[in-house]
Amino acid sequence: MNPNREEHEIRQLFRELKRADEGLAPPFMTDWGAALAQTNKAPRAQLMLRLSVTAVVALALLGSFAFIAFNRLLMQPIPPTAFAPTAIDAPSPPPSAVSNTASASHAESSQARLRRKAKLAMATGFGNKQKASRRRLPGQSQPPDMLISRWHSPTDFLLRSPGDRLLRTIPRLSTTTADIKALSFDENE
Amino acid sequence: MDSSGLRSQLEKYQRESFGWALSCCRRDPSEAESVLQAVYLKVLEGKARFDGKAAFKTWLFAVIRQTAADARRRKFLRRLKLSKYTERAGYTAQAESLDETIYRSEVQLLFRQALAALPQRQREVLQLVFYHDLSLSEAAAVMGVSVGSARTHYERGKKRLRRLMTKARVCNESESGRARDQAAIPRVEAGG
């Protein structure tokens, strides 16, 4: 086939196609108007999107701040009196004194409150001992476990033997039996 | 170019733009119209700017081609979500109605079918050259390929189109001949 004739035929077919398409083409104003309407809609949609994103971010920030603040509140240092060994070691007052003095009962109730606080703090804030020790400042109160190690039983003296001091000291050559006896008697007194 | 000048240019090329959008949207008029609206929106929002490096028509056609490609991609993703059966049935029905209403001539119908069977690049270059009267270099600029590549697509497209048209004609003639024979047989039997 002759290439020119072939091209001419194709061109002819395309021309017919173009003529058919032109009938389908919408008027310019229809498409332009629709595009204009969408342009007016677009800023409002963008504004709404921006507002919603900002609200979500603000809520997230607020939530995280609240969480941090709550955590800090729980981890506030508890006053040293809460763990003071005196609270446990102190000899219990005679029953008559307890019943008579209102101040003594008030002190006891405050001690009990402090103990409850300490327990709560151990259950919540001080769960992770390592973290707590990392955050602790030098001047701050000590954790309860160290204080417990220092604790002595109130009946500890019963375990002491009469010649205990004598056994714990190194005897000198110059001392006499009388001195040793005197020493042991002093102790017994 | 100021907005009024831009608008008058767009108005001038409205029909041609629609024809090109139609070609980019596989001859779907509603999709072509939405693509054209999207192009105007891009122009209005300043997302597509004419910088004067190429002819206005070349720039506009490149924007249409890009927008149609985006729309096609979106449609494909949407189609993945929807049921295949429904989508295919709807598309076929639309294509058939288009055939019946617009392309009544038999040759035009064959031509349209052959054009649809061409690879995209070949179809595009033939459309730009024969339909929109662009030169090969302008067509290459619209398609975003080199002139050499556009020329290759053009030559191959022409050859393939001719082959497809010939094949379709032969098939059509043989089918019509068979139909004529089948129609003639009962007449002979009835006569005998």
Q: Could you explain how this protein is built, in words?
A:
The complex is a heterodimer of chains A (189) and B (192). Chain A is an all-alpha fold and 189 residues long. Helices cover 69% and strands 0% of the residues of chain A. Chain A contains nine helices and no strands. Chain A has helices at residues 3-24, 28-74, 86-89, 95-100, 102-123, 129-135, 144-149, 164-168, 177-188. Chain A is rod-shaped, with a radius of gyration of 46 Å. The termini of chain A are far apart. Residues 86-101 of chain A have low confidence and may be disordered. In chain B, α2 packs across α3, α2 runs parallel beside α4 and α2 packs antiparallel against α7 (120-131). Chain B has helices at 3-12, 14-24, 29-45, 56-81, 84-101, 106-117, 120-131, 136-143, 147-191. By secondary structure, chain B is an all-alpha fold. Chain B is globular, with a radius of gyration of 21 Å. The longest helix of chain B is centred in the C-terminal third of the chain and has 45 residues, at 147-191. The A-B interface holds A 1, 6-7, 10-11, 13-14, 16-18, 20-28, 31-32, 34-36, 38-39, 42 and B 7, 10-11, 14-15, 18-19, 22, 29, 33, 36-38, 40-41, 43-45, 102-103, 105, 107-108, 111-112, 126-127, 130-131, 158, 161-162.
